[in-house]
Every structure is written in structure tokens, then in C-alpha cells.
Amino acid sequence: MKFYSTNKKAPEASLKDAVLNGLAPDGGLYMPQNIPLLPTEFWEGIHDMPFHDIAFTIAQGLVSDSIEDDVLREIIRKALNFEAPLVPISDNISTIELFHGPTLAFKDFGARFMAQLLKHYVHEGDEPLNILVATSGDTGSAIASAFFQVPGIKVKILYPKGKVSEIQEKQLTTVGENVEALEIQGTFDDCQKLVKKAFADTELRKTVHMTSANSINIARLLPQTFYYAFAYAQLEQGSGDVVVAAPSGNFGNLVGGLIAKRMGLPITQFVGATNVNDVVPEYLETGKFRPRPSIMTISNSMDVGNPSNFARILDLYGDDVEKMRTDIHGLSFNDDETRQAITNVYNDTGYIMDPHGAVGYLALRAHLEKQGKAGTRGIFLETAHPAKFLDVVKPLINGEVPVPASLQEALNKEKQSTLLPKDYEALRAHLKLRRE
Ligand SMILES: *Cc1c(COP(=O)(O)O)cnc(C)c1O
Which atom of ligand 1 is nearest to the CA of 107? Predict the structure, then answer.
């Protein structure tokens, strides 16, 4: 399988080059040259298949001859060493919990798969590969944990000083060894600008070997197709129409679902759920794409004003908004509605949603009600554990949120970070100094 750039001006790349480049040289995002339709027998038999077999079959379809089967199986076995249970919330609504990985957010799927894939490509004694990533929270912790002690790889996480939650900061500054946290005196947008500048710095790239671990990287996208199939597999056979809502920011998560559908996964429709950063729902409604600065919300990992994976959605639908509308419905909700949903669902069912999952829940419920088709099953993705957002969730449920042991462990450790101004020369000098 080769990978092409959504800008169509760069040469096709092998899986290895696509992963190591991150962004294509023409600034586009990589996509698999061909998305194969898997046989109906596979989808019909999926309800009895182990997760790792489902993931392997889908991955094999997308990377085919790029990687040997036994290596691919091993990557999946090591990367996905946690559960993704489907939990019923009401008669027709369930959630698939994607937060059972080590950093308690769905980003563990992408980060851990990418780490295992790079482990296969980069060897001890090679020139070290630097993974540069800008984070507003969850990405940084997932990358830090996934790449910890991977030989030949150095991780540099840029995060905005004072602008990530205490828990998120602890998760990304307490890993150590080959993982360095760079605390930038600026905003998340400044961090992202610095990373972009470093990747565009051809002079620097001659001496410092580096790639990006943001959600543009194809290695993060591939495993995000798997859990849509895991969710479907846990429904009873013959469940009728199935709608899935994905709480979205950069829309990498949703693109995973769209690709799975192209491969034959019987999901009737997707709901792209956002907070007030509603650039994509607005596009679906008006046909106009208006990126703009992001607005801060309580579902902060979805505070994105210019969704990076939108280029992939456009590419999948050949820039045709009408076609897109048949598969994707967009809905947005504000913080008050999100808070109310967390309280209501807890009071009615005892289930504790995190603010991101709650946006997905709201969008799913609204979509099912509007559609009014009896018998449709709805699934929303629960993208983070509620304990990651204690300060928001706790007051809303008037009770305790259980804190998983891994989180408590990070909270007890000492923060270690390097403070840098939001000045590109300072980052550049630091990267040159620390490249070995
Ligand atoms: C990153 C993130 C999202 C948004 O995912 P995208 O792929 O950027 O759309 C949603 N919820 C949580 C908890 C996240 O960390």
C-alpha cells in the first residue's frame, strides 16, 4: 500500500516514509491509496471475533504489503493491551469506553500504535529520531507514555505553561528518561507554531532527525479505525441501523470511523459532535469552511478552530458537501448543556461521563430524536476517563469520581520540565543541543 498526499503535489510514499514524514512535503496529509472493501463474511462474523483479530484484519487491509503479517500482529498485540468495553446507558444508547489505556484517553490507541510501528522502523544505534509534539493536554501524555524507553527515540513535548490541567501536566512531565517536557511561555497556538516552524526549517532538519506525532500522522489514524469495529462487534447480531457520535476537535477520530465505513463497517451514519468550536458542523450546514481562533471550553481537548483532519474528510468525499451530508451529521453544544448532560445522565443512570463524551452523548441523543426512527441503535465514544477532569465533573455529580491508580501515581511524582520562551530561536538552539 502506498500513501498519497491530500494536496496531490507530493510523490506517493511508503508506509515507513509517510510515518517518518508526518506531513507530506507539499503540506498535505497522507491517505491510503486504496481503501479496500472487506468481505461481508468478515463483518457478519465480527461479533464472535477477538479484538486483536478484528484490528489485524482491518490494519492488513490498509497497509497490506507494507509490513509482514507477524510483525503487524505483534504491533497490535503490544499497542492494544487494554479493553474497549461497550457500556449500555439507556435502551437505545451505549458508549464505547476508549479510556482504558495507560493515560486514560482514546489517544492511547494512536500513540501506542505509532510507538510500536516506529520501534519496528528505528533501531538502536541509528541516528536518534526526535518526536516533536505540541499539546493542549491529552496528546502529550499519550505520546509520553507510549514512547517511554523506546530505543533510538527522543520525545519533545511542547505545552503551554499554566494552560493544561494539573493532572494533564503531571502526566506529561513525570515520565522522564527519553521524554522531555518543554514548558512554553505562551499559548497552545504558540506551541503549534513553534513545532510547524521547526518542521519547515530545512537547515535544522539536516542535523536533527525528526517527525511529528500530532494527529496528522498516518500512524495515529490507522488504529482509530479499529474501535468503531470493536463497538459494532459488541452489539447483538442484526441490531439494525447503527449511528455513532464522535466528540471531535481535529476530527482525526471521526476520520477513522469514516474509513471503517468505506471498508464495509455497517454503520448507518456518523455524528460529528463539537463544543462551541463548531467549524465543521457549520460547514455541513452552510457549505462554507471558516476556520477561526479557538474558544476555551470545559471539553478542552476539542478546542480547535482549524481542524487539521478536515483535509482528509474533504478528500474522502471529493470536496462534495452533499455526499458528506449523507454520512456525517454535525451538531454542537455549549458548556452549560454539557454540564447539564453530565448531571442528568448521572442522576438517571449512575454513569459518569467526562465533558468530551458528554458532548458526544448530547449530539447522539439529539440526532436520534430528530431522526425519529424506532430501533436505531446509538453509540457515542467516551474519549476520556472522567477523573481526568475532576474539577469539572465532581461538582456536577455531587459524589466521588473514582481515580484510577495510574493517575494517582503520576499525581504523586515530581514535575520535571524545561522552561522556554515562545521564541523560535530558543527552541531551535535547544533541539540542536539535545539532539544526541
Ligand atoms: C483529542 C480528543 C478529542 C478530539 O479528537 P479529534 O481526533 O481531535 O477530533 C476528544 N476527546 C478527547 C478526550 C481528546 O483527548
Answer: 15
Global confidence as pTM = 0.95
Mean pLDDT (whole number) for 219-227:
97
Answer with the residue of higher pLDDT: 396 or 137.
396
| C-alpha 249 – ligand 1 centre gap (Å) | 6
- Known catalytic residue at 78: no
Residue among 412, 430, 411 nearest 420 (CA) = 430
Closest to 236 in 3D by CA, of 39, 53, 46, 42: 46
The mean pLDDT of 29-42, rounded to a whole number, is: 97
Catalytic residue, chosen from 9, 107, 193, 388, is 107
The Cα-based distances of 414 to 140, 144, 407 in angstroms read 17, 15, 13
Q: At what angle do helices 226-233 and 252-262 cross, to 10 degrees?
A: 60
* Whether 51 contacts 80, CB under 8 Å: yes
**Predicted pLDDT of residue 436:** 54
Pocket around ligand 1 at a 6 A CB cut-off: 105, 107, 138, 215, 247-253, 301-302, 356, 383-384
